[in-house]
Specification:
The protein is mostly beta strands. Among the domains are: 17-136, Nucleic acid-binding proteins (OB fold (Dihydrolipoamide Acetyltransferase, E2P)), CATH 2.40.50.140; 142-213, Nucleic acid-binding proteins (OB fold (Dihydrolipoamide Acetyltransferase, E2P), Beta Barrel), CATH 2.40.50. The protein has 5 helices and 19 strands. The protein has helices at 38-43, 47-56, 101-104, 127-137, 219-223; strands at residues 17-21, 24-28, 60-67, 73-77, 80-84, 110-119, 122-126, 147-156, 159-165, 168-173, 194-202, 208-211, 231-240, 243-249, 252-256, 267-276, 281-290, 310-312, 323-325. The strands form 5 sheets. A 5-stranded mixed beta barrel has the order 3-4-5-7-6. The protein has a 5-stranded antiparallel beta sheet with strand order 10-9-8-11-12, with no helix packed on it. Strands 13-14-15-17-16 form a 5-stranded mixed β-barrel. A hairpin with a 5-residue loop joins strand 3 (60-67) and strand 4 (73-77). The two termini are 15 Å apart.
């Protein structure tokens, strides 16, 4: 495998993007990542600590309790009343580029914000300011191939929308989730899951496309655990007249001979007949297949930080080349 590495920060705990500000580090991470940190908890304790956070420009996070009739978000701040006015709820709300449903769907979820001003026991906050800073100081510095932390927010048939920082969304197309063919992202990931992904592209409007398959191992890395004569588990993904494609790992499938009555989604046990790196093939014999509850298996990353310049999936000497050039 050939990987060109470029150093970037992509550790969830230390922040995907950061800059020095008044002697502290401001981080930009997906919403939900700051809630349990000691720094965030301390800053939410009282009016005094909130005022210090305002002076430092610290990004804070708490749970949205309510979206009122005027689409202002009300945020949990203990004895104080935290309010994110509608126009401060997200980038693009004031211009109509972002619809108000983006505010309604934040209720009972974490939101990040900067403290703007104090009026009696009401504290006015801005989520839009965090998103604007995240774009300028972090997301605009990213390049194709950079590996970043993300949180899956919701799934569609064509892909998954992921928070790549401060609630800013990026698309992870279903075809970029893994090498194995899957009909829906739910076969691989779920809403609320923290993942790693690489930047696939950024268009002229700043919209980010992600890819994850390059982090899940090459053919050779995944096939290393297989030996002819083993019987291993798998999931049936595709049934064709000429054979059955069985997923052995997110980035590795094998082909078994056609058996009547088999359907996609069935859990299978398969006998490994042969492993052929030169043809990038695994020949299987179907032993058993039953329907069961298929929850996405934990993801195994073969690389989860830095940056990819070139990823070669195919084994050395293989007749076919499968690769990604960022």
């Amino acid at each position: 495998m050939q990987i060109n590495m470029r150093d970037t920060s992509s550790d969830f705990s230390s922040g995907a993007g950061a800059r020095s500000l008044s002697g502290m580090t401001r981080v930009f991470v997906p919403e939900g990542a700051l809630m349990g940190t000691p720094e965030n908890r301390r800053s939410l304790l009282s009016e005094n600590t909130l005022r210090r956070a305002r002076e430092d420009g610290q990004v804070l996070e708490s749970r949205a309790l309510l979206c009122d009739g005027e689409h202002n978000l009300h945020v949990s701040l203990g004895s104080l009343r935290g309010v994110i006015p509608r126009r401060e709820g997200a980038l693009g709300i004031d211009t109509g580029a972002t619809r108000d449903v983006a505010l309604l769907t934040r209720v009972n979820k974490p939101v990040q914000f900067l403290v703007e001003k104090f009026c009696g026991n009401t504290v006015y906050l801005s989520r839009r300011a965090v998103q604007s800073a995240c774009c300028k100081e972090y997301l605009r510095t990213l390049r194709p191939g950079d590996i970043v932390p993300a949180t899956v927010t919701h799934l569609e048939s064509f892909g998954a929308f992921c928070d790549v920082g401060a609630g800013i969304s990026a698309l992870l197309p279903v075809s970029y989730l893994c090498v194995s063919r899957i009909a829906h992202p739910a076969a691989r990931i779920y809403a609320g899951q923290s993942i790693r992904a690489a930047i696939k592209g950024i268009d002229g409007c700043g919209r980010i496309t992600l890819t994850m398959k390059e982090l899940l191992g090459t053919w050779e890395e995944n096939a290393a655990a297989l030996n002819p004569g083993d019987t291993v588990p798998g999931i049936i993904r595709t049934v064709e007249p000429y054979g059955i494609f069985v997923e052995l790992a997110p980035n590795l499938s094998g082909l078994a001979e056609y058996v009547p009555g088999v359907r996609p989604g069935m859990q299978a046990s398969v006998f490994v007949k042969s492993v052929q790196p030169e043809k990038m093939k695994v020949k299987l014999v179907l032993v058993d297949a039953v329907f069961g509850h298929n929850t996405p298996a934990p993801l195994r990353y073969f690389v989860d930080s830095g940056s990819l310049g070139h990823w070669l999936y195919s084994p050395p000497g293989c007749e076919k080349t499968v690769e990604t050039v960022f």
